[in-house]
TrEMBL record:
Keywords: Cell membrane, Kinase, Membrane, Phosphoprotein, Transferase, Transmembrane, Transmembrane helix
Biological source species: Paenibacillus cremeus
GO MF annotation, one: phosphorelay sensor kinase activity
Protein name: Sensor histidine kinase
Example of a GO cellular component annotation carried by this entry: plasma membrane
Pfam hit, one: dCache_1
Amino acid sequence: MQVLRWFQDLTIRKKLQFINVLIILPSIVLLTFTLYQMTLKQAEERALRSSEQKIELIANTIGNLFSDIENFSKLSMINKTFQSVLMNTSPENSELQRLEDVQTVYESLNTLAAANPYIDSVILQSAEGDRIYHSDNMSNVTLSSISVYPVQQLIDAKGTAVWIDTFESPFLVNDQRKSLISIGRRVININNGLLAGFFYINVDELKLSGLYGSGGTQGRVMIVNGLGQIVSSNDRDIVNRSLQSLYGSNVAQMRSSAIVHSGRQNVLVSSRDLGKEGWRAIYAVPTKELLTDQWNITLFILGFGGAGLLLALILSMIFSNWITTPITQLTRAMTAVGDGLLDTRTPVRTNDEVGRLTRKFNEMVGRIQDLMAAVNAEEKQKRVLELRLSYSQIKPHFLYNTLEMVRSMALMVQQRDIAKVVKSLADFYRSSLNGGQEVISVAQERKHLESYLYIQKMRYHHIDYRIDFDSRLEDSRVPNMLLQPLVENAIYHGLRNKRDGALCEIFGALEDDGGLPVICFTVCDNGEGMSEEQLERIWHRDQTDHGLSSFGIRNVHDRIMLRYGPGYGLTIRSRPGEGVEVQLRIPIISDKGIP
C-alpha cells in the first residue's frame, strides 16, 4: 500500500518515465538475451570452423616438416661413406682413404644440418658406440651424453624412423643446452644385413614451436605423442606434461573438433593425427578468449534500445578517435623506424598504457641509435687495424725464394749458423703471413715464437728465453701473430740493454673463469720494468697515430676486444727495475672441442 501511495503521489511526468522504464527495460533485457544467445551460438560455430582450418594447416605444415626430416634420415641407410666408416671396410693399409672417409662423413653431417632450418644437429654412432660423428655445431658429445636415445627401440623398429620425445640435451649445441625432438634410425650394413650403427637428427623444439605458434595465435597449440605426453607447444610451461592432467580425459581422447567442459571453463579443442606413431597436433583455447566481443555486442544492443543511442554513437566516435590517435601516431613512427629513419620520435601526451608504450618505444629507438653508432665505430676501428695488417704484408713467394737462395749460398760456404738464421727468418715470415689466415693453432704460434726468438738470440747473445705451453692447448685456435708483438716489446724495451742474465719467458696455461675454460698466456721479462706513467701512456696513446712499423701492445689488446668482446684482453704488471709481466686471456676455441 505504501508503494502504491508513493506512486500515486508522483507527478505525471515522472509516472510516465517510470512506466516507460517498466515497459522498455524487460523488452530490452529479453531482446538482449535472445540476441546474445544467437550470436554466441554463431560465434562458437565460426570458432569451430576456424579452429578446424587452423589445426588442419598446422598439421599439414608439421607433417610436411616431419616427412622432410624422415627423408633426410633415409640418407643414412644408403650413404656409402657412412657404411664404410661405421664398418671399417677400408683396407688396413689405406689410412689416407679412411681419413678421407671420416672427413667426408663430417662434411655430409654438416651439409645435412644446414639443409633444413629446423634441423638443429646430426649424430652418427657406430653399433659398438666407440665411434661418434656429429655436426660441427655440437660439443661434449660422448657415449654417455647420447645415451638419451632409445637404441633398443631403434633396433626393434627394423629400419623405420623412430620419433623421440622432447628431452634436454646433455651435450651442447652452439655452446648451449636445448630442448630437442629427435628422429632416429638404425643403420644396416647393406652387404651382410648386420647392424652397423645409429643415425639421429635433432630438431630444436623452440624453433618447431615457432613454426606453428607465431602470428599471435590464441590458446595453446601442442604436439602430443601416442601416450598423451606433450612434446612441443607454444606454451613453454606445459612441455613434457600430460595432456590429461591439463584438460581431463575427454580432451586427451579427442580426435576431432568440439567444445568440451574442462575444470571450470569450456575449451574449444581441435585435434588432427600426424601419422607418426600416434602423434597428434592439438589446438586448445578457452571459449571465453574467443568470445570476448560478446559483451561488446550486448552493450551495443542495450545502447541501441536506449534513448541516448545517437549521443552514444557521437561520444563513441569522439572517444575512439581520441584513444586511437596516439596509437596511429605510434604505428606511423614504427613504420618510419622500420624504413631506417631512426631519428623518428612520437610525442607522449598521456600516462596511460599507450603513453607508457610510446615512451618505451622512444627509449628503445634511442638505444638502437646508440648501439648502431657503437657498432659503426667498432667496424671503422676494425677496418683500420685490417688496413695496417695489409700494409705490413709483403709478397711472400718472392721473400721465401730469396731467403732460400741466401740459405743455399750460406751452406755452400759452410756457414751453417747463417743458414740456420735465414731458415728461422723464413719460418718466421711464413708463420706471420700464414697464407692470409687470421687464426692459427697454438702449436703454430709456438713455432712462430721459436723462430723469432732464435733470430733475436743470435742477434743479442746475452738474451735467453724459455717457452712452456700446456700440451692440452696445442689444437686450440688463436689469432695469428698474437704473442710476437708482446715478446718483441719485452726484448726491445726491457732486455736489449740488460747485459747479464736477460731472460724472456712465455707461458701458456688452461684456466677456469667462472666455470668457463680460458687460455692464459703470460710474457715475462726481467728487464728494466715500467713506471705508472709509462703504463698509462700505453693505454692512452694517440689513436690518430698511423705508424705501420708494428702493432704493439695496444693493437694486440684491440684485436682481442674486437674478436672476443670486453671480457678478455691484456693486463700488465710492472715496477721500475723489476721487469714486466703481460697476461693475455682469450676463450678456448678448438677444432676438437674443449679439452
